[in-house]
Design a protein that fits this description.
binds adenosine-5'-triphosphate, ATP hydrolysis activity, single chain, five-stranded parallel β-sheet, ATP binding, transmembrane transporter activity, cytochrome c-type biogenesis
Length: 209
């Protein structure tokens, strides 16, 4: 099943063309790894793919929905994990995830949220304002979304390993492998090599000025 289609996508920022004629067709169980040096346009591309930015040209759909017409860039079965974590600094981990689950119509409760936070090594930190957690711990709170949204069929992950320790990187890699083997599709970018035993395709963006 095709989950993502991008046709002749172009992006411009401040009169600079970052990329053009990007074509992607991603099916269930496929992994696309987007690479490129700083400023090449990886985040810009991912934001276009999930409908958070408009392309200068081209067309994108996820699960058959035109991404430019999706409310707040969200398709029901899409999970976007961006650079900015979408986590309020003032709320606790539990409050953040409770609110996020409500927004995404995820049927859960604090017990399940606490269990997920425990899986992510955050036992005892559930009810502390996120601003008082370390950078890696804050990242873990945001990553809990991947654990909680079990009905997603496509993950778009922008540098998911940033600030994570080696233990959690390995855990996330194995979570990704399980997701792919179950038919999920992933588009991701990272500056570090991905250590999973799974076939992937690569889209390399060249930095151009
Ligand atoms: N809103 C914006 N207005 C103007 N320029 C922007 C905007 N967003 C991004 N850019 C520029 O677009 C270019 C690509 O940025 P982008 O964040 O997509 O790169 P990236 O490949 O993800 O980089 P990195 O590896 O550093 O995360 C950069 O030169 C950046 O300055």
């Amino acid at each position: 099943m095709r989950v993502l289609l991008a046709q002749q996508v172009a992006c411009e920022k401040s009169d600079r063309q970052l990329f053009s004629d990007i074509n992607i067709e991603l099916h269930s169980g496929q992994l696309l790894y987007v690479t490129g040096e700083n400023g090449a346009g990886k985040t810009s591309l991912l934001r276009i793919l999930v409908g958070l930015s408009q392309p200068a040209a081209g067309y994108v759909e996820i699960n058959g929905h035109d991404c430019q017409k999706m409310v707040h860039g969200a398709s029901e079965r899409l999970l976007y994990f961006g650079h900015k974590q979408g986590i309020s600094q003032l709320l606790t981990a539990t409050e953040n995830l409770r609110f996020w689950c409500q927004q995404h119509a995820i049927d859960t409760n604090d017990t399940a949220i606490h269990a997920t936070l425990a899986e992510l090594g955050l036992t005892g930190l559930e009810d502390i304002a996120v601003k008082n957690l370390s950078a890696g711990q804050q990242r873990r709170v945001a990553l809990a979304k991947l654990w909680l949204k079990t009905d997603a069929n496509v993950w778009v992950l922008d540098e998911p390993f940033t600030a994570l320790d080696v233990h959690l990187i390995a855990e996330l890699e194995s979570k990704m492998a399980v997701f792919l083997n179950a038919g999920g599709a992933i588009v991701m970018t990272s500056h570090q090599a991905l250590n999973i035993d799974y076939p992937m395709s690569n889209l390399h963006l060249e930095y151009s000025w």
